[in-house]
Amino acid sequence: MEIKFGLISADSHAAFHRDDFTSRMSAQKWGDRIPHVASKEEDGQRVDGWSIYGQPPRGDVCNCPAVMGDPFPTWPKVWEEVPATAFDPKKRLKALDIDGVDGEVLFPNPPGGSYYEYGDVEFELASVQTYNDVLADWRHASDRYLPVAAMPYLSDPRIAAHEIERAVTKGHRGVNLPGKMPKGLPHIAAPHWYPVWDVCQQLNVPIHFHGSAGLDTAASAKRWSGYSVRQAHAAATSTSAVTPAQIIPHFIFSGVTERFPRLKIVFAEAGIGGLNFVIAACDHEWETRRLWTHGLATRPSEAVRRQMYVNFWFEAEGIKLRNDIGVDNLMWESDFPHVASYYPRSWQEIERVLQGVSTADRRKLLYENALKVYDIENTVCTVQALSPSPAL
Predict the structure, then answer these.
(1) CA 20 to 30 Å from 1, out of 56, 89, 137, 272?
(2) Given this model, what pLDDT does residue 149 score?
(3) Are strands 308-312 and 330-332 parallel, antiparallel or unpaired?
(4) Is 39 helix (H, G, I), strand (E, B) or coil?
(5) What is the strand order of the sheet 103-107 is part of?
(6) Alpha carbon 204 to chain centroid distance?
(7) Secondary element (H or E) of residue 231
(8) For residue 8, what are the β-bridge partners?
(9) Cβ–Cβ < 8 Å for 322, 311
(10) What is the rounded CA–CA span in Å between residue 306 and residue 317?
(11) So what's the pLDDT on residue 380?
């Protein structure tokens, strides 16, 4: 990867072409269970969404308001309104250049990256493999893309580990997971998942918990009928700051971080601000309950700084805490092309958020930490100074 702007997004989203699944999965075997774009009628108008496992279409056909133009924010109602910038990896490169971004870590967009809810082990594995193959094609299109793999939860963990290994050989640089495993499966801290942690540690690829990570935080507020659609979304996403606090203690106090000290754990789209509390809380519990006598030799704050990472993009106040958390543990994200993205003026907001931050720390926050976390080698660095994109 060439670093010419000095900026890597540790959280962006790859959209899918309507034919990505239907062109790869067997129609004879799966029929209308294959994820595909289908239409329904709402208020007398056609609306497209993704149909999976033969169910009616639901959700947005694509979540890409950052590239929809004015009025902002707007979401496409039908497939024909989806800009190619969202789903075509080669055309998207121009958007990265406009925003002054060298590369981006790719998380899901509709139809999503999990297919366990249908209870069909074979279908889930086939869909996950297809999802991973689609995003591997992005990596082949350009080394500026760093896709994060999906995992088949219903399969034996050894099969899941094998799929992760397969995805990594095809170019994936991590794995995306829920904070709460699907109903009926062991807790995320259980030894059941050790084969997954082991393969990720051996391959040096991080596991990820994105946004709420599927945790039902503040559910009553999210579901209040008095909200407009936009208000409900804001109330839901604003709770993502507590995601690390719900997951980190389980990895530490179960002994997972003790057993897998080189397992990298990334919290995307959860911000910085909540991390100091969970670090202090875990240290407090470890000390007062003398948990080193229970096999937990490492102080929690040391484990966090050794192997956990969080992202930021709008938190000027959070950046002031960078030395308390560890400047090596923070990475910038854009969330492109979602509504929270600052595209195409990311550098303008970076200057606001990083006001007063030293050049050395800026380099770490904006791209050097990402290069380390995602184990990016053979980097050609041509950036002369960290400054706004010439395109702005």
Answers:
(1) 272
(2) 98
(3) parallel
(4) strand
(5) 8-13, 103-107, 145-147
(6) 17
(7) helix 229-237
(8) 103
(9) no
(10) 23
(11) 83
Distance CA 29, CA 202 (A): 35
**Cβ distance 311 to 340 under 8 Å?**
no
Note the pLDDT tens digit of each residue in 114-162.
Answer: 999 999 999 999 999 999 999 999 999 999 999 999 999 999 999 999 9
Domain boundaries, the chain: 2-381
45: three-class secondary structure by DSSP: strand
And the tokens for 51? 């149909």
Report how far apart, in Å, the C-alpha atoms of 172 and of each of 17, 294, 338, 372 are.
19, 36, 21, 15
Range 190-195 contact pairs with CB under 8 angstroms and sequence separation of 24 or more: 190/254, 192/157, 193/157, 194/157, 194/259, 195/157, 195/158, 195/160, 195/161
Three-class secondary structure of residue 175 per DSSP: strand
Rounded to an integer, what distance in angstroms lies between the CA atom of residue 223 and that of residue 221? Answer: 6
**DSSP-assigned states of every residue in 55-107:** PPPBS-S---GGGS-SSSS---SSGGGS-HHHH-HHHHHHHHHHHT--EEEEE
Q: Which residues contact 386 (CB under 8 A, 6 or more apart)?
A: 6, 7, 359, 362, 363, 366
Give DSSP secondary structure letters for 263-313.
Answer: --EEEETS-STTHHHHHHHHHHHHHHTTGGGGT--S-HHHHHHHHEEEEES
pLDDT digit string (tens) for 26-85?
A: 999 999 999 999 999 999 999 999 999 999 999 999 999 999 999 999 999 999 999 999
**pLDDT tens-digit profile of 345-361?**
999 999 999 999 999 99
**Triad 11, 14, 16: Cα angle to 5°:** 160
d(CA 362, CA 359): 5
Q: Which residue type, as a one-letter code, is found at position 236?
A: A
Structural tokens at position 65 = 């308001």
Dist CA 326 CA 304 (whole Å):
9
One-letter amino acid of 122: E
CATH assignment of 2-381, among 3.30.70.100, 3.40.1030.10, 3.20.20.140, 1.20.210.10:
3.20.20.140
Tokens representing residue 299 in the block: 């102080």
Q: Kindly tell me the sign of the dihedral angle through the C-alpha atoms of 196, 197, 199, 203.
A: positive
- Residue-wise pLDDT for 292-317, tens only, equals 999 999 999 999 999 999 999 999 98
